[in-house]
Amino acid sequence: MAIIQTQNVRIAGISAVIPSNKESNQDLQNISQESIELLIQTTGINSRRIAPKSVSTSDMCFAAAEKIIGELKWDRSDIEVLILVTQTPDQPIPGSSMLLQERLGLPKSCMAMDLNQGCAGYIYGLSTIMSLMSGSKLRKGLLLVGDTITHLLDDSDLSTVPIFSDAGTATALEFNPEASEALFNLQTDGKGFEAIQQKRGEAMKMNGHEVFHFGLKEVVPNVKKTLEHSNKTVDEIDYFVFHQANLLLNESIRKKLKIPTEKVPYTLNEFGNTSCATIPITIVKSLGKELQSNQKTCLLSGFGVGLSWGSGIVDFTNCVCPDLIEI
Hints:
The chain has 327 residues and is an alpha/beta fold. The protein has a single domain (1-327), classed as Thiolase/Chalcone synthase (Peroxisomal Thiolase, Chain A, domain 1), CATH 3.40.47. 31% of the residues lie in helices and 27% in strands. The protein is built from eight helices and 15 strands. The strands form four sheets. The chain has a six-stranded mixed beta sheet with strand order 6-5-7-8-2-15, sandwiched between helices. The chain has a five-stranded mixed beta sheet with strand order 1-9-14-13-12, sandwiched between helices. Helix 5 packs parallel to helix 6. The longest helix is centred in the last third of the chain and has 22 residues, at 208-229. The protein is globular and about 55 Å long. The protein starts with a strand and ends with a strand.
């Protein structure tokens, strides 16, 4: 497994954007009311946010980035790295990170790159940008994470439509010699790629049973190993922020790890599964006000498409988290 340790980089702020268009699972068609109630009970998802076709991943990430840059009063000329994590770029070529570098008015000295990652994307992206900044002493960086997954779905597919939502987020990072060490544990198993897949020209498909069993098998030992490498116990972690996959899976993981319910925030009910954006959205919505004036240690864990999964232990100190933005 890939254990990555980074130093001297702090998370200065996180902002998140969701579409204003809200759809309820109570209104699903061609399914009985009894089945709807069971679906909501097991997934924990009551409503979803759907971006219109005119709104792209970069549109939402741009709005999130503009918000956090303004809140932090950053000088854009200090931003030296921008990483975009998405499975739904605006176009195949060039990468959407390059479009965002220009759109945000960042200097030509800013490096920009795209990462094609899904449910574990926030952990992969955070470990990548923190490693770059730590090793090269880059002053400021933006991690933009989001997807318009609903644009890939078949409206009649009840294995995906009631689950997925759209969102864009921005995480602002600063080089700071006083920042606490962060630790990440990343894993991959490409044999399971068919569990969640979108072939060229086709709708995205998901085998929910395979994803569920994968999560049960792999996430718990990954989290345990992450805690072991950091010499921390469950009691020493203030919050565990898991990818918002579905309630039944996430609660099974929580119980296996013996984590108290009050340490595991959820946003599934309101926003569904926003792919790579679920972790930052949950931080902003559930923990934002607390993180702005406190120091908290959080374990973040993402898992899904790839198959890929990973956990990270990160300290948040006076992290600016403005309220969710709707567009």
